[in-house]
Amino acid sequence: MTRAWITLDKQEILTLSSVVWLQELSEREQEIQASGRVGDYYAAHDAAKEELRQRGMVSVWDFEEALEMYLEISIEDALVSPDPIIKAVAMLDRRTGKRRLRQIDSESLVNPLVKRCYEIRCEAEGLSRAVEA
C-alpha cells in the first residue's frame, strides 16, 4: 500500500493513503448498497468513489492520473475541471495570475483541497480574497 503527501513550508496540505481510502470506499459502498439507492455493486462503487472525491478524499492512483492529465490541458480547462486535484493544482500554477485569482468566486469552491490551495495562493499573492473557513 502507498502513501503520498504534499507539503508547503513543512506543513502537510494533502495526505493520501491507499489503505485509508480503500477502507472509506468499502464503508461507503456498503452504506449505499444497504440504502437501496443503486441496484448493483458497480453503481455503488462509482457513487461511493464520487462521494469521497467530493469530500476531498482521493486515492493515490487517482492523484497520479490527475497529475498526468493536468500536464496535457490548458490552464483554462484546468480551472473549470470537475476533478478537484486538477483544479487545486491550477490554483497554484503561475499561469493563474492575480487577475484570474480575483475573478474566482470563492463561494463556488466547495472541495476542501481546492479551497486550501486557493487560500494559499491568495496569501502568497497578497490578495485578501481567501475563502472563509
How would you describe what is shown here?
The protein is mainly α. The chain has two domains: 3-58, no CATH class; 62-125, no CATH class. Helix content is 58%, strand content 10%. The protein contains seven helices and two strands. It has helices at 18-35, 41-54, 60-70, 75-79, 84-92, 98-103, 112-125, and strands spanning 3-8, 11-17. The protein has a two-stranded antiparallel ribbon. Strand 1 and strand 2 form a beta hairpin. Helix 1 (18-35) packs across helix 2, helix 3 (60-70) crosses helix 5 (84-92) and helix 5 (84-92) runs parallel beside helix 7 (112-125). The protein is elongated, with a radius of gyration of 16 Å. The model has no long low-confidence stretch (mean pLDDT 88).
- The ordered H/E elements are EEHHHHHHH
Note the beta-strand portion: 5-15%
Query: For the terminal residues, how far apart are their CA atoms?
Result: 32 Å
Strand-pairing-aware structural class: mainly alpha
Strand tally: 2
Tag the structure with descriptive keywords:
133 residues; mainly alpha; 7 helices; 10% strand
Please summarize what this structure is.
This protein is mainly alpha-helical and 133 residues long.
Task: Show the helix and strand layout.
Layout: E1 3-8, E2 11-17, H1 18-35, H2 41-54, H3 60-70, H4 75-79, H5 84-92, H6 98-103, H7 112-125
Antiparallel strand pairs: 1-2
